[in-house]
Design goal:
By secondary structure, the chain is α/β, with parallel strands linked by helices. The protein has three domains: 4-66 and 308-425, inorganic pyrophosphatase (n-terminal core) (Alpha-Beta Complex), CATH 3.90.1640.10; 86-254, Udp-n-acetylmuramoylalanyl-d-glutamate--2,6- Diaminopimelate Ligase, Chain: A, domain 1, CATH 3.40.1390.20; 429-550, DHHA2 domain (Diaminopimelate Epimerase, Chain A, domain 1, Roll), CATH 3.10.310. Helices cover 38% and strands 21% of the residues. The protein contains 20 helices and 22 strands. α1 (14-29) runs parallel beside α12 (358-369), α1 (14-29) runs antiparallel to α13 and α13 crosses α15 (416-425). It starts with a strand and ends with a helix. The relative contact order is 0.12.
């Protein structure tokens, strides 16, 4: 069952986190068990305070929802070790109808790929290739195992060595003449129940005697072999099959392709597609962060559909959404902001209401459908609501927010006013964060008339920390603007006690000159009675952009 991520915007605030958790719970309780609360940014001290207060874990962190290699790879990896025999590899390929095997060491690190094509060329060389098919590179133990036979007598059976096959299917005189021209210590003599050939091979001191056909080896032959130091293997197969199998007893480390292309499991599928397509490889090992092989990817795997589904909460613009959202299927949006430029491939449930917080909408879903709202979830939604509306004092607040908050207070057993005071006292970004972190923690990206910009907001108790760090905040804001290639970047610092804000702006002079709020210091503007980024500041800034472009 594929998961459906219920996820807020980048740099999530309290409302985005609480709404994601709450709506995921609502969807699970109403027939969507695969709904999972997620986040695409870090929590902050205030969010952590809320989660700890109501005993709820943070949503799962998901940085990117674009299709990954792990989504289409074959996770059940059939593999062999470098010391496995060609016969073992062939058997595995035949059993599972595959053409390529990764060769993994004991730590599951890939040492190369073994292809059926290369195995076939090795075991069945073309007639015009100068390959001595009599030569066998193997240990006696591997030879016996490959033949499905028994090592009846042998020494140094694990030592890999090069042997020369000799078929003992000739007159004894011819066999003796042949033996005199060869190195007996390298010979593997394949013979049936011809005791005279067996005895002669032993007297010459061949390396191994392979008795085929399942014929019993006479005791005096075994005794003579042991005295002479000749190994004996009993094979159940006929001469032709035995000789053919002997060549496949070679360890595959001698024939694997050590050049290969691998991908990380978390790599973007689109990012690696071109590289894979242009390579000469048909399969690609997939590794984890430690370099261990966790999957295998074939070129046909790129054709598999990836069913990644999202429910967006507290935003409806791709510029603010989790990375890769444009490659996923968005099935629902629950929001209270302006409509952005977002298109979907099919009709979706889009609930957008002019209320003070997304948590208000989520709580209303529980109430309208008669779904039980537990104390922890009621507490989270209360926190999201008072955070976004400054406990119903923001100009975005509606009567509906007040009605929902009253019901949440009763269910959560929490006094909203007292909780709000604790919430805003629980963590000051300007005290706890570096300047680059503070200006980006709740930054939202917007696009208007082909121009990109960002507006961040920080709620503080008083402006003391702001004035102490004004210069470094302005420097960080300018660096952020340049890095993101924005026409301007703004930071709105709101004093929740006196209900007014200060705004830092870093941007092109032609835009900054259009701002007509009081400017007590360069780059710092006084926003009296302005506390809402969404309803008060954003419309003003977009108006300044229009004014700039028309000038």
């Amino acid at each position: 069952m594929s998961e459906i991520f219920v996820i807020g915007h980048r740099n999530p605030d309290t409302d985005a986190i609480c709404a994601a958790i709450g709506y995921a719970e609502f969807k699970r309780r109403t027939g969507m068990p695969e709904a999972v609360a997620a986040r695409c940014g870090d929590t902050n001290d205030r969010i952590d305070f809320v989660l700890e207060t109501f005993g709820v874990p943070a949503p799962r962190f998901v940085a990117d929802v674009s299709p990954k290699v792990r989504d289409v790879m074959q996770s059940q990896v059939l593999s062999v070790t470098p010391d496995a025999t060609a016969a073992e590899a062939l058997s595995l390929m035949d059993e599972h109808d595959i053409r390529i095997l990764p060769v993994l060491d004991s730590d599951r690190r890939c040492r190369g790929l073994l292809s059926l094509f290369k195995l076939s060329k090795f075991l069945f060389p073309a007639a015009n290739r100068l390959v001595d098919s009599r030569r066998v590179l193997s240990s006696l133990n591997n030879l016996a195992k490959t033949l499905g036979g028994t090592l009846l007598a042998g020494s140094d059976a694990d030592r890999e060595e090069e042997l020369v096959l000799m078929i003992g299917a000739m007159r004894i005189e011819s066999f003796a003449q042949r033996l005199e021209t060869l190195q007996p210590e390298k010979l593997a003599v394949v013979v049936g129940d011809r005791s005279n050939i067996q005895s002669l091979a032993i007297r010459f001191g061949v390396r191994v005697l392979v008795v085929i056909g399942g014929f019993p080896v006479e005791p005096h032959i075994l005794e003579a072999a042991r005295k002479k130091g000749v190994s004996v293997i009993a094979s159940p197969h006929d001469t032709s099959t035995t000789a053919s199998l002997c060549r496949s007893a070679v360890a595959i480390r001698h024939m694997l392709n050590e050049k290969f292309l691998s991908f990380r499991a978390e790599a973007s599928l689109n990012a690696v597609k071109a590289e894979a397509a242009s390579s000469g490889f048909a399969a690609f090992p997939v590794t984890d962060e430690e370099g261990r092989t966790v999957g295998i990817l074939s070129k046909t795997d790129f054709l598999k559909p990836v069913a990644r589904k999202l429910i967006l909460v507290d935003h409806n613009e791709l510029s603010q959404a989790v990375q890769g959202a444009d490659e996923a299927e968005i099935i629902e949006i629950i929001d209270h902001h302006r409509l952005g430029a977002l298109t979907t491939s099919q009709p979706i449930l889009f609930r957008n209401e002019p209320v003070g917080s997304t948590s208000t909408i989520v709580a209303d879903c529980f109430f309208r459908h008669g779904v039980e709202l537990t104390r922890p979830i009621a507490g989270l939604l209360l926190a999201g609501l008072v955070s976004d509306t400054l406990n119903l004092t923001s100009p975005t607040t509606t009567p509906r927010d007040g009605e929902i908050l009253a019901r949440l207070e009763a269910l959560a057993g929490v006094n909203a006013r007292q909780f709000t005071e604790k919430l805003f006292a629980s963590g000051s970004l300007l005290t706890l964060k570096s300047a680059p972190q503070a200006i980006a923690t709740d930054a939202k990206e917007y696009r208007e008339q082909g121009l990109a910009f960002s507006v961040a907001q920080i709620e503080e108790v008083g402006f003391d920390q702001f004035w102490k760090r004004k210069d470094e905040l302005l420097t960080a804001l300018e660096n952020y603007r340049v890095r993101q290639k924005y026409i301007f970047a703004a930071l709105m610092v709101t004093d929740v006690t006196c209900q007014q804000s200060l705004m830092l702006v870093a941007g092109e002079k032609r835009f900054v000159d259009r701002i007509d709020y009081p400017e007590p210091q360069p780059g710092v503007f006084e926003l009296r009675d302005v506390v809402s980024r969404k309803k008060q500041l954003l419309p003003y800034l977009t108006h300044c952009l229009e004014w700039m472009k028309s000038a």
